Amino acid sequence: MEATTVSGSADDSDAASPVTDDERLALGARSDPTAFATLYGRHREPVFRYLRARCTTDDDALDLNAVTFERALVAIARYRPLGAGFSAWLLRIARNAAIDLGRQNRTRPVPAPLGDAEAQPAQDDPEAAAIISEEHRRLRALVRALPEPQRDAVALRYSAGLTARQIGAVIGKSEEATQKLITRALSDLKEAYGHERR
């Protein structure tokens, strides 16, 4: 595959920010299906984890994952390597797909556990498994109780692995405002978790 370059004059090349490999692939995907396939392979898991944190079932998250990449393929010609990068652009599409599903269902999606919270404890210790399961249940309930902007920011950070800058691009806030949102959410979770343990 030929390397895709960003068009521009030699004079403005020093002022332009470097184009990442994902961005090159995204630009190349306009005419090369294998470039989009590479992007899909790189980003399907983080997108799924984010969608799983927003949806009530794995099936809904899988369906939305497919919708996200279908919409991204249709819109790839309009992608520009500016802002927070390709992954933030893709997760914004995923977020919009989840919002659309929520509107269709007329119910608010209940977030699933974040990150590896569903990792199975050792099966040879039922007591430890029960304790871990109860802790995960409590944490999920506390995350669900957060206001939606905080829930979404936490899911994007810990399920999809985005930075505050990238999350801001997805949810339409500045990097500083997004960092404050995440910090406040974590503070609220810590406080609520402490109150429950008393």
What is the residue-averaged pLDDT?
78
* DSSP strand tally: 0
Largest sheet: none
Q: Are there runs of 5+ residues with pLDDT below 50, and where?
A: 1-17, 107-121
Structure write-up:
The chain is mostly helical and 198 residues long. It has one domain (20-113, 121-197). Helices cover 66% and strands 0% of the residues. It is globular. It starts with 20 loop residues before the first helix and ends with a helix. Mean pLDDT is 78; it is low at 1-17 and 107-121.
Chain-wise SSE layout:
Elements: H1 21-28, H2 33-54, H3 58-75, H4 86-105, H5 126-145, H6 148-158, H7 164-171, H8 175-197
Helix pairs in contact: 1-2, 2-3, 2-4, 3-4, 4-7, 6-8, 7-8
List keywords for this structure.
198 residues, mainly alpha, globular, disordered N terminus
